[in-house]
Amino acid sequence: MTTKEWARAALSHPAFTGISRAHLGGLIEELADPWIAWCESALHERRGGKRKQQPGAGPKHDLVFTDRVLVTLVHLRTQLPHAALAELYSLERSTITRAISEIRPLLAARGFAVPDRPGLRLRTLADVFAYAAAENVKLRIDGTETQVRRPKAHRPGRCAFVSGKKKQNTYKTTTVSDGQGRTLWSGADRPGRMHDQTAVRTEGIAEQLRLHPNVKAEVDEGYRGLANEFPDQVSAPPKKPKDDAPLGDQYAWREQRRRQSSARICVEHANAEHKQWRPLQRFLGRRENYPATHRAIAGLVSDRAAQRATRRKPSTELVPVHATAR
């Protein structure tokens, strides 16, 4: 039989948590106060009034706060079943489930780390655009999908999760990164049937583009409507010329498309970092827990990505088609 001390020492390895031990220590310290505040609020709601016992009185937790954070990170990194984690700690599965349900929202609410700005975190799309306007950052925007469980038969909205692209039941999330693939924001979680552009429009991206006319963004074909509405701010791949177009126009289109793809590939790399965590490869939990899971993982990934040094290199402007020699 394993002991809690042994389980804590083994599971704190970066292979299980996905973060370094130094990062883990800082994360536990960061979440301690929000967790205490949440516990006080829960006690107040249950008792319907002021505290009747001194702090520390009453039954003790079977799983201390440090272990609660640890099992949540292990579950987010490996999607290890709750029953397996309970066996390691010699506890009931319900104890692990309750611990994860308490810590996961705290991780999701942390927001996303900002490169070269320790202590500053972005939590909304408005924060991202304000940061991009202040720091002159060109944004990269892309959507990603994760397979989720299919809703039960005869349930309303059962087809809402069927993705026309993946041909599976998915959840769609929008990711925003900078030019080096460092995650700045991840959100706008919507059922997979919704179009990429519609999902991010419901989050208010059009209003943010109007409020910050100097902010520019690179997108893919899925955001063609945004590029048409904001041609000076949003750059999408050029439209393919007709089959009977001159050969020079076709060569120019290919080169322009290659450059645009090269400019926005970094957001694909950001999504790839998220997909290294098992739940975002195929989510096996309840669908209503997916948004908090994705935000928690993306926030942890952004902590590591923000530590990468900023590389300075000259920007490459796209060459118009008519300017290319035929």
TrEMBL record:
Where composition is biased (Polar residues), the residues are 170-180
Its cofactor is: a divalent metal cation
- Alphabetic keyword roster: Metal-binding
Annotated Pfam families: DDE_Tnp_4 (PF13359), HTH_Tnp_4 (PF13613)
Question: Which intervals of the chain are annotated as region Disordered?
Answer: 170-194, 228-247, 305-326
Where the record annotates domain DDE Tnp4, the positions are 141-300
Quick check: keyword Zinc in the entry?
A: no
Q: Fetch the InterPro entries from UniProt.
A: HARBI1_dom (IPR027806), Transposase_HTH_dom (IPR027805)
Asked whether the keyword Metal-binding is assigned, the reply is yes
Query: Which residue intervals define the domain Transposase Helix-turn-helix in the entry?
Result: 63-111
Q: What is this protein called?
A: Transposase family protein
